[in-house]
Amino acid sequence: MVMTGEGVSYGTQIHDIAQLDPDGTAIYFIPLEGDDRLVSWRELDEVSTSLAHVLQHRGVKVDDIVAVSLKNSPEHLISCFAIWKVGAVPVPMRWDLPEWERSRVLATMEPVLVIDDPESDLFVEAASASTEPLADVTPPRGWGVCSSGSTGTPKVVMIKTPGLYFLGSPSNLVVETYGPLPQPQRFLVPAPLYHTNGFTATKNLMAGDAIVLLEKFNAAQILDVIERYRVTGFIAATPMLQRLVQVPGIEERDLSSLDWVQQGASPLPIWLGKKWCELVGPEKFYLSYGASEMHGLVTCRGDEWLEHLGTLGRGFTETELRIIDNEGNVLGAGEVGGIYMRTPTGPAGTYIGDNVAPMPQTDDGFVTVGDLGWLDEEGFLFMADRRVDMIVTGAANVFPAEVESALSEHPEILDVVVIGLKDPEWGRRVHAIVQPADHAMPPSTEDVIGFAKERLAPYKVPKTVEFVVSLPRSEAMKLNRAALIAERDGPDEERGPT
Q1: Segment 112-130, tens digit of pLDDT
Q2: I need a surface site. Which of 117, 274, 358, 426 has the fewest CB within 10 A?
Q3: Which domain holds residue 485?
Q4: What's the CA gap between 333 and 203, in Å, rounded?
Q5: Percent of the chain beyond pLDDT 90?
């Protein structure tokens, strides 16, 4: 749905779409079990308005923070739009956190209310509350993102730009830089809504695009859903893309409805990027690299990526890139250092809380979140790893992402994470934790090490291998490396608490 004009509040935009297409489907909700649930634009607007009346009655005011701790569901999205309609700020958070960790996150964000039960009295009251639109108000801040970083210390990134939707905004800014997309789009959401990739669904709804929302990532189910609902595009983290290509017979599935597939959130192994370029075509495959702090963005399309294998891309629109060493020196092409970005307006995100250090920043406004990489002669960025994840073994630096990328090609390995463990000889030894594709017939330790030796320099090859039933990835497919290390050799003073 293409409209033009000035910025309007998020709540007004959803209301206006509902007036134009009340009976059209806004949300196709796909549970792990049971029948799909369809939510119309009218229902999305009216139920979020009713809930907004309840929130207002409960004392929620403009710029208040409201935590949303719900599974992927229509109620999660309805809650966010209800919060926006009273001018408050939604902060999605993991619904399954242990109480100790949950209390730390809530103490950091200090919400006035937590929405954590789709059957709570909030929703019961909303069922009989008014559907009359509230007075239009623009939230002074957009939303919040919960992040524990690599150390496990809770952080909440607050997007400080106001909650305004600019009419005519593209469905996918990255993809539409290369050309317009057919409208409207039908956007698949395989990621949890508390993750930036998943929360993008709210922007797609405001663009008038229907979304296909999964309760939880399931690779085989996703392929069925793409075919059933003729999905036009989706954003996925690298582990999700890997799980999808491991579904037997994916080459025979009908992916013709896809206009684009966008990778984000972690480095992409070369073999996996090539596979997706084969599946959908390089002109439909996109890569993006950024952070919750929104300090800049790096992107490229599949055809560019194939010409610069392994790249993350170049600075998107007005994002400038620099590689800087620990002494503050700007490095040349091919030299590894900290990845710094600068945009004309600076980072859109800022940390809240008293105990979070600000992002490192140069005097002229270049900001880093701690990732390491290098630029080639044409300005394409390549990732080395996160500084905090780098393993110093002997006198050499090993980047886990590179080792994981090599091992992920092994046909008998479903998932792998590489960490550094204390070692009396090496300081830290490279240790691979492997999830076999078939638990009944896992590869041997010798096979894994031999596979690595064929692809990596000797000092990068894992010295030890551990096999597990499954890796403890979150719904966003993230791992807490610090916790994995602490479980095996105790807390690391350099990393802090887990």
Answers
A1: 999 999 999 999 999 999 9
A2: 358
A3: 391-489
A4: 36
A5: 70
d(CA 12, CA 86): 11
Residue 416: pLDDT over 90: yes
Question: Are both 221 and 343 inside the same structural domain?
Answer: yes
Whether residue 493 is predicted with pLDDT greater than 60 in this model: the reply is: no
Q: What is the pLDDT of residues 130-149, one digit of tens each?
A: 999 999 999 999 999 987 55
**What's the pLDDT at 2?**
35
What average pLDDT score do residues 180-189 get? 93
Q: Which amino acid is at 29?
A: F
| 190 and 252 housed in the same domain | yes
